[in-house]
Amino acid sequence: MVLLLAASALTTFAKVGDGNWLNRVPQSARERTNPLAGDRTAIMAGAKLFGQYCASCHGKQAEGSPKRPNLHSNRLKEATPGELEWLLKNGSLKNGMPSWSRLPEPQRWQLVAFLKSLQELIDRP
């Protein structure tokens, strides 16, 4: 019984952050750069936005949950800023990710700056 539940949880987790949304990102969006990249104020604003809008699903430390992906993953690290902004704008309802198109574009870029800063913290020796 426990083995069956564990297998079910792994299957569910694999589907949630499956990355198929990347196939839908137009090349023009994929190539966009974050105008706020490296801006400490933008990163702090993005952290605040993350706490307001994202932490309830992705965890306070972006660690994920059984049904939502860990945002410290290699997939996030390898995603371009344009891909992340596109995902925030368009969502991936199939995977449980809502569209955040109601957030102004500068706020979406602040979130992207924060998400990318998570990877920089991990990569430091």
Kindly describe this structure.
Residues 1-16 have low confidence and may be disordered. This protein starts with a helix and ends with a helix. It has helices spanning 2-16, 27-30, 40-53, 55-58, 74-78, 81-90, 105-123. Helix 3 crosses helix 7 (105-123). With 125 residues, the protein is mainly α. The radius of gyration is 15 Å and the shape is globular. It has 7 helices and no strands. The protein has one domain (2-123): Cytochrome c-like domain (Cytochrome Bc1 Complex, Chain D, domain 2), CATH 1.10.760.10.
Please summarize what this structure is.
By secondary structure, this protein is mainly alpha-helical. The protein has helices at 2-16, 27-30, 40-53, 55-58, 74-78, 81-90, 105-123. The chain starts with a helix and ends with a helix.
- Strand fraction equals under 5%
- Unreliable stretches (pLDDT < 50, length at least 5) are 1-16
Report the mean per-residue pLDDT as an integer.
82
**How far do the termini sit from each other?**
42 Å
What's the number of helices? 7
Net shape = globular
Main beta sheet strand tally, sense and closure: none
Structural class: mainly alpha
